[in-house]
Specification:
This protein is of the alpha/beta class. The chain has two domains: 141 residues, 3-Layer(aba) Sandwich (Rossmann fold); 29 residues, no CATH class. The protein contains nine helices and five strands, in the order H-E-H-E-H-H-E-H-H-E-H-E-H-H. Helix 1 crosses helix 2. The longest helix is centred in the last third of the chain and has 14 residues.
């Protein structure tokens, strides 16, 4: 499924050069996880998707106990998810990051390590209780994902021509 935000993801990857993480905010069920995973598959040699809404306490505790030892953290994540990580060619996705504020707070240290790229997704992430006790990282770019618009809906139906027709009709009506 084609989404307009995909171009923003490509722009971030090409311009940030691993110096910032990307936070994608948006309402629930608008396709944040889907588009980020599609992006990872198409633009990285490997990726790990950590869904904090359903991951084990074991993984969550890694962010409490091993941020001072990133070698161990990455080795553990690689083994746990069964994914080999490659320097500057892998993406780590923190899905539903609002459920693990410690991981979001760690973005500064993870980005400065410069081994991997990071994308965070979250719903209601700016709600006060979801940012309590964490320092919002300055190494984080933020974009908002909106629900599918009509043009994206048409693309999902396989219709690449109707929107052009509608745009031309509007032009004709305005000029008439």
């Amino acid at each position: 499924m084609k989404r307009k935000i995909y171009d923003d993801l490509l722009k971030w990857k090409n311009e940030s050069n691993g110096k910032t993480a990307l936070l994608i905010e948006g309402a629930r069920r608008v396709g944040k996880s889907y588009i980020v995973e599609k992006f990872a598959k198409e633009n990285y040699k490997s990726y790990i998707l950590i869904d904090f809404s359903k991951t084990s306490n074991e993984v969550i505790q890694l962010f409490d106990n091993y941020l001072e030892n990133l070698d161990y953290l990455f080795t553990y994540l690689s083994e746990y998810y069964g994914v080999k990580l490659y320097n500057r060619e892998s993406l780590i996705i923190f899905d539903e990051i609002q459920f693990c504020p410690r991981a979001r707070g760690a973005i500064k240290h993870l980005v400065s390590d410069y081994r991997y790229d990071y994308i965070e997704t979250g719903s209601l992430i700016s709600i006060k209780k979801n940012v309590k006790d964490i320092l919002i990282p300055s190494e984080e770019e933020k974009i908002e994902m909106l629900p599918m618009d009509f043009e994206e809906f048409l693309w999902a139906l396989g219709n690449d021509t109707l929107m052009d027709f509608i745009k031309n009709c509007r032009y004709v009506l305005v000029c008439a």
